[in-house]
Structures are given as C-alpha cells and as structure tokens.
C-alpha cells in the first residue's frame, strides 16, 4: 500500500494530467475515487463516503480512467492505477539518507529528478520530443507530411511545426 505522502503525490500527478487534458482540476469526487482506489476500497465504500450512488462512482471513475489513459497513452483503471502511477515515477527515493519525493526521468543517458509539480509538464514535453523524433525519422525515410500526420494523429500544421522546430 502507498504511504499518505505517495498518495498526495499521486493526486498531484493526476491533477496535473487532468489540467493538461481538460484545463480543469480534479473534482473532490475524482480525488476521493483516486484515494479510495489507492486504499483498496470498493466502489460501494467510496460511494458511501461521498454520499452518492455506486453507479455515480462507476460513471465518474470511468471518465477519469479514460482521461488518464489518454494522457499517459496506456490503459488506466482501478486495477492498475497504483502500478501505473508508480511506473510513471510517483515513489520514494533516498538521497543522502533523507527520503524525498519526486519524479525520476531518463533523458538520453542522464538521470533527471524533477519535483512533482514539474512532472506533468515534463511528461508532456517528453511526449512532444518523442513525436518530434518520430516525425524526423519518418521524414528521413521519405514519408510524406500527410503520412506522418496520420501516423502521429496530428494536423499537417503540427507536423510542420515539429519538423521546423527540430531544424532550428
């Protein structure tokens, strides 16, 4: 089970992903769902604690999992939420004998440690960099801009910006 500090960090990461996706913060109910799931509570327990129906919890959590899945580009659900957030970097690590919380990322061969408030923006920047790299590889393999746009699910304008950004 995650510590309370790790649960707070999980909420921060989920909130930043929702803000990036929907320009809004997690609702109180969505936050309660995440905390409840991380505490291994059933939908009926979460519903009782939030004074709503189990169906409302299922509907709200389904929308939440879809949004997180979209942002993380992998399926997210109540069964894998904890492992997904851990894999994305929400965990404790020791530095000089003190426990700190942060997100560890690997860029090229360098290890970077970011504070949790930087995690979603860092994730999104990494996602953009990966798309840029793929676009450049495809261009070098003589794919057309239309083919690149279709493969990356981007507009022609976005592909042009990616490729031109790399050239500068």
Notes on the protein architecture:
By secondary structure, the chain is mainly alpha-helical. It has 2 domains: 4-87, no CATH class; 118-168. The chain is built from 8 helices and 3 strands, in the order αααααβββααα. α1 packs across α6 and α7 crosses α8 (156-167). The model is unreliable at 90-117 (pLDDT under 50).
The level of helicity is 55-70%
**What's the arrangement of strands in the largest beta sheet?**
1-2-3
Topology as a string of helices (H) and strands (E): HHHHHEEEHHH
The chain-level structural class is mainly alpha
* Cα end-to-end separation: 47 Å
Q: Write down the oligomeric state.
A: single chain
Sketch the major β-sheet. 3 strands, antiparallel
Tell me the fraction of residues in β-strands, as a range.
5-15%
For the CA atoms, what is the radius of gyration? 19 Å
Averaged pLDDT, please?
76
Low-confidence stretches: 90-117
The number of E-state strands comes to: 3
The domain count comes to: 2
Write the layout of secondary structure elements.
Blueprint: H1 4-22, H2 28-38, H3 43-50, H4 54-72, H5 81-87, E1 91-95, E2 98-107, E3 110-114, H6 119-140, H7 145-152, H8 156-167
Antiparallel strand pairs: 1-2, 2-3
Helix pairs in contact: 1-2, 1-4, 1-6, 2-3, 2-4, 3-4, 6-7, 6-8, 7-8
């Amino acid at each position: 089970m995650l510590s309370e500090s790790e649960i707070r960090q999980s909420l921060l990461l989920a909130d930043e992903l929702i803000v990036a996706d929907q320009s809004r913060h997690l609702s109180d109910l969505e936050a309660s769902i995440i905390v409840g799931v991380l505490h291994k509570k059933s939908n009926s327990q979460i519903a009782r604690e939030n004074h709503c129906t189990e169906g409302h919890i299922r509907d709200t959590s389904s929308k939440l999992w879809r949004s997180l899945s979209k942002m993380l580009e992998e399926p997210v659900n109540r069964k894998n939420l904890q492992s997904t957030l851990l894999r994305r970097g929400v965990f404790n690590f020791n530095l000089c004998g003190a426990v700190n919380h942060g997100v560890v990322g690997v860029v090229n061969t360098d290890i970077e440690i970011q504070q949790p408030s930087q995690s979603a923006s860092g994730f999104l920047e990494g996602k953009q960099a990966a798309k840029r790299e793929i676009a450049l590889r495809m261009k070098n393999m003589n794919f057309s801009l239309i083919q690149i746009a279709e493969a990356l699910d981007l507009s022609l304008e976005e592909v042009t910006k990616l490729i031109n950004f790399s050239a500068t």
